[in-house]
Amino acid sequence: MTPESGYRRADAGSLCADEPGATPAWRSTIAAAVLLAPALAVVVGAYAFFITAGFSAKPPPSQRYYNMLADAFLAKQLHLQQLPERALLEQADPYDYKTSHRLWRLWDASLYDGKYYFYWGPLPALVIAGVKLAAGPETIVTDRTVVLVCNIGRLLVGAVLFVLVRRWMFPWLPVWTPAAAVLVFGLANPYLYELGRPGIYEAAIACAQLFLLAGLLAAFVATHGCRNRRRELLLVATAGFCWAAALACRVSLLFAVAALVPLTGILVSLREPWSFRRFSAHLAALAAPIALVLLSLGAYNYARYGSFTDFGTGYMLTGQRYAPRMSMVLPNLEAYVFRRFDVTCRFPYVSTPFFARHLTPAWVRPDSGYIPKEPLVGLLFGIPGIVFAVSAVVRATTGFARWRSRAVAHETQTRVEALSTACLVGGAAVIVGFAGLPTLGVWFSSMRYLSDVTSAALILAIVGFWTCLPDRNSRTSRCRARSVALLGATFATYTIVLSVLLGFQGGYFRVIEKRNPALHEKLQSALSFCDAESVPDRPIRKGHDGHGGGATNPR
Question: Model's pTM, two decimal places?
């Protein structure tokens, strides 16, 4: 068989293939897409349920921080229209929480030169400003809406990705496997828990994850192979634009994006005999939009603070300054991987307390500066199926090494499979390894920061689990195959059930208990195994409703 014929075989079924008409592969893909509909409906319904505190008639109030920033942009200014109180400005040090915490201030806003600014990425506010121009300036888009839209967008990107992964990498799996993957991908912790307080913190992360995964999807499709180079370059540029948009939402993803760009450029270029010119074109298509966004963010910062690299975190009105330290890395790593949860006999049976000193290991000393301030469940306890990620990494590395050895009969077909697998698994591993780096140095860990890496970790886990499932030609015993399938199903069920139970906790502010007490009492009365008991947790004080106005709100 000639390399050209192998190229066509490898491209058969590709999104970039030119052949019209349905094939068996297309029919299988369409069947998988149809089965996605009920899974997507279940996940979106769960999002709607938890973000409204169980469809409460009095849903919790939502921040409007991005709406405020959009109003500022429409007023042709960078600072918020709301001005600080004179009493706050008259303080000797308005940033000192101990001396000014009794004064009203816009929590976590950046106070500079007598004006309020936000350090969060401006892209969602720019989109909201466009919505206001189209629908009218009186239109209000809450941060809750941004969180819901971006989470649904992330879910849809994941659904498309799993359909393509099954079609191109695991065609022997049943057509319903992408739907099962979507259920885990959409319902895993911390997504339901975070809907209890869908503020600007969660909005910035959710939007960034949407664009980060959309870029990974575009890179995966480009690496799998387009015979039309123009389409291939378009997909590479799409990945670059998506990753640039992710930075415009959350600039802390810069380390991950900086690693994704050369990885994608190299892998896409290796589809054909190496050409530095072709690699340069791919690299330029990836890097140009990212460079443009970084320059724009620098100009945005300079216009506000007189510095291209100052995002305003040093001027935040918060309880404790953001000052990353290397000594916080190990405590944070331990928390994000191994933090457990409390178990109780009352529904929802699990609890993620504030200030969980009893859940931190003895080597994390109280005087170290690290504070287990916010609720958190580590990846291994929240998503135990992440252990399958090892199989995905092994598949990608061995497949790439096998192709590089050139000891295969159909080199082109093996090359496409090796490069596309390396792009997907390598890209997801890069996100897991680099997206959370900036938050490892802060003095506390948080459930929302877990979202920086959870989506990519779930992709690795699902691809790894599918790798462990034998194909039709495998000599694996039926008992072993069933054992692997049972283990994966058990991990998936545990992951979803735990996340739903954590969602019923109601986020930071127990919004279901506070905003839908009838539902909360009914569930506790029917499902609890014991009478009321005290569960160690942070007391909910006035102002802790996620509104962003109280001086005691957590970051």
Answer: 0.91
